[in-house]
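Aim 2 progress update. The chain analyzed this quarter is reproduced below.
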Amino acid sequence: MENNNKDIIVGIDFGTSGIGFAYGFLNDPNRELYLGHFEGQDKASKISTEIILDDDLKNVLSFGNECKKYLCGISPQKFHHFNKIKMNLYKKIYTIKASNSNKEADIEYIIQLLLFEVKKKAIEQLKFTYHYLKEDNIHWVITVPAIWDNKSKQKMINAAQKAGLIRDDDDPSNFFALEPEAAAIYYSNEKNNYKTIIEDQCPYILCDLGGGTADIVTQKKHIKENGYTFEELYPPVGGDYGANNINALFKDRVLKKLFGEKCYNDVMDNISTLYHDWNELEKKIEEFKTSFYNTSQLISSFQIDCDIFSDYSESEVEELIKNFNSQNPDWQLTLYRRWRICFPYKIILDLMQEIMTNIIDLILIIVKTVDVKSLIFTGGASLSPILVDMIQ
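Predicted structure tokens:
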């Protein structure tokens, strides 16, 4: 299919847990949006935000969902796995360490490689359909949290320039789309999938709840002849209240207390040789968290194989569970067999409520100042019925 002078917008959603892209054409009267697709991707529109590099950090060994297959195999060479890196920009950490080693890298460099992989896939997909595509016709846009500071946004600009997404004659300020504002535009479109429409002159709070952060904006939409604009009614607020923090709290409040700080730290000190088992453990923690839907599950539990701690523990697993239960009467663990432990769903409920209480407290501060008419939640964590119950 010939593509002569079409101005193409490619938007990249760079999340803590997932990354994806979509594209559309400015001169398309229907403004159709097309989702990008990666190999090994399921029906979801994003793949995991992770990359595996060789020992010199120069060659990409695996990217996105393909990293899971790589980690399941036996690598013939040293590798370094970087994932969940976006939160470092929020925390103003610009040198990051690989998850499986002590190898460090500049965060700009890792983001550059991730963006370049997405760029390659987007151009490949576009050229498959539009054979005469010119890369100069593509305008790249990337989503960033509204609560990031200017230095973190500049780091993203630097990485995008090195990845070839921003050319010398581009205005870098046109490269960003604030994540909650992008969501507001989506919910202003009558064709959005959720039938949620932001009405004219109606003050609203929009909470973008991702894997790393909660990003909250308070705005009002003004419809004009040539479209609409958004007025900020309260400064953007938020924090590290994303869904991944539940995983982190589980490790800190449960695993570290169950096996003891020394045992836990010994495992982390030997992570390079235990990385396959540690990766499996992290997947089970994520499965534990995402398999909890409602309070009727509180009578049941979830099994996790904790054998990774067995060689470093100074006590038998039965004794560890007994001590933990005596100190945590609300979280009673049981042993299925050997080091396979049953964790009650009450743990996930309590940790989830702790995270979401921070979000609700921020909303309550805003509604005391602004006469809000609508409350909109978006992002992966917004699907939690526990959040809905707490809001109600």
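The chain is about 35% helix and 25% strand. Residues 107-129 form the longest helix (23 residues). These observations will guide the mutagenesis experiments scheduled for the next reporting period.
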